[in-house]
Specification:
The protein is built from 17 helices and 8 strands. It has about 450 residues and is mainly α.
């Protein structure tokens, strides 16, 4: 025992301190952090700005990449004494196998979970500054952190049992393949047992699904530890039974593990326009941008009758008196980092939703010509000039159709405001027609 200047004994450092500070743990945590952050950064346009999308990407990365890495890290740590040829020496230590296993595993678990936690914080910050609505989903990252901890401990037991240097990488590859196969199965069969499987961005898990997943994965890890290190190995049957019960519950519930997110059923609307403009409540922050993008279209429709009441943005088909708002999801196309990527394209898609004739198997060419003129007036297609020139370069018949379209556009534009408003009112009264009969001529 060392004496300090005052004559008091200096306290010995905790045995876990060396493991935490100088062991393999910091490298494992750094590897998890680097892998997850690079993976998320590569496709950041597909999730940044959407809380549900961020949750989904984090969950997939943690399950498909983090779990195999945690298993491999634990396995490598478990074989450390064998590689150092100190197994016999450790066997004579005062601590039993259970205490030795925990002393070796806990620091590694700490670093693996810490690496994941930093990746989660970075992803949440990346979405926070350009979030479009909704709120963060924190239960899923907490569940994934527990799963990573369980995988690390389970991997440690494998490393203690299997005396082969290639066990760790092969375990990681095998876990990656297994998780990928289960995920490919969708949400049926044994897929609910995989920590990778998740709902879609418009769904959330039922309240007990995270608990069942933790019991399933944690129970297997605890059973492995007790079967290896407990004095009475039969006690491993208790966590194994709990894991089995949780696994059976997950598999039998199947698709019932997820339900539609209540916020996805709601929408926020700008009622100052005609039609009203609504976006899904998950993207409420985009409403000013959407209203601005459609301002030209709604301005030209002022005073026009027989229009849909609103542009709606809820799951399912719109009601008879509604038109569908152009899709904002999936993020990465129309919306990137909280901004509309092409407002003109968005306005054109909204205009086509007013006269889409989606129930028509075939639309008469004369009716297409009238629709083209209306679309050109309300919100021209961004690359309209290119398509017009391409049509004009084709056959004589296409050239004639091109000239007929130009003439129809010119006639609609030449009308005075009152005449055009009356004509458009009559036109939108026949927006579901598939033949020119009944549609006002142009």
């Amino acid at each position: 025992m060392t004496l300090v200047a005052e004559g008091r004994p200096e306290s010995s450092p905790h045995p876990l301190r060396a493991e935490v500070v100088r062991g393999f743990g910091p490298w494992a945590g750094a590897a998890v952090l680097l892998t997850l952050t690079v993976t998320l950064a590569v496709n950041s346009t597909q999730w940044q700005g959407g809380w549900a999308e961020t949750r989904e990407q984090l969950h997939t990365a943690a399950g498909l990449l983090g779990v195999p890495m945690a298993l491999a890290a634990g396995c490598w740590q478990g074989g450390r004494e064998r590689r150092r040829r100190t197994e016999e020496l450790m066997a004579t230590a005062a601590r039993g196998p259970f205490a030795r296993l925990l002393a070796s595993a806990l620091p590694l678990v700490l670093w693996v979970v810490a690496g994941y936690a930093v990746a989660v914080v970075l992803a949440l910050l990346a979405t926070w500054y350009c979030a479009t609505g909704d709120t963060p989903y924190l239960v899923v990252p907490l569940t994934d952190a527990f799963v990573l901890a369980a995988a690390t401990v389970a991997g440690q037991v494998v490393g203690l049992l299997v005396a082969w240097r290639l066990t760790a990488p092969l375990l990681a590859v095998g876990a990656y393949v297994l998780l990928g196969v289960l995920s490919y199965d969708g949400r049926g069969g044994l897929a609910p047992l995989s920590p990778v499987v998740d709902g879609v961005t418009t769904t959330v898990p039922v309240w007990w699904q995270p608990v069942a997943m933790m019991v399933w994965t944690g129970g297997l890890a605890v059973a492995a530890v007790l079967a290896y290190a407990a004095r009475h190995r039969s006690v491993a049957l208790l966590p194994l039974a709990a894991a089995t019960a949780a696994g059976v519950l997950l598999v039998q519930t199947g698709d019932g593990l997820w339900h539609t997110n209540p916020i996805a059923r709601r929408q926020v609307c700008d009622t100052s326009t005609t039609p009203q403009i609504c976006v899904n409540a998950r993207y409420a922050g985009l409403l000013p941008q959407v209203s601005d993008a459609l301002s030209g279209l709604t301005g030209r429709l002022e005073g026009v009758q027989n229009l849909p009441v609103r542009f709606e943005d809820r799951p399912g088909r719109p009601a008879r008196d509604e038109a569908e708002t152009p899709m904002l999801a999936p993020i990465g196309w129309a919306v990137v980092r909280g901004r509309l990527t092409d407002p003109k394209q968005y306005a054109w898609e909204a205009g086509t939703a007013l006269y889409g004739r989606v129930e028509c198997d075939e639309v008469d060419v004369r009716l297409r010509r009238i629709d083209d003129a209306v679309g050109h007036y309300l919100a021209p297609r961004p690359r309209e000039k290119y398509f017009d020139e391409d049509l004009a370069r084709r056959s004589e018949a296409d050239r004639a159709e091109y000239e007929a379209r130009l003439a129809a556009r010119a006639r609609l534009k030449a009308m005075d405001e009152q005449e055009r408003r009356a004509w458009l009112s009559e036109y939108f009264a026949t927006a579901d027609e598939c033949t020119p009969s009944g549609v006002p001529a142009l």
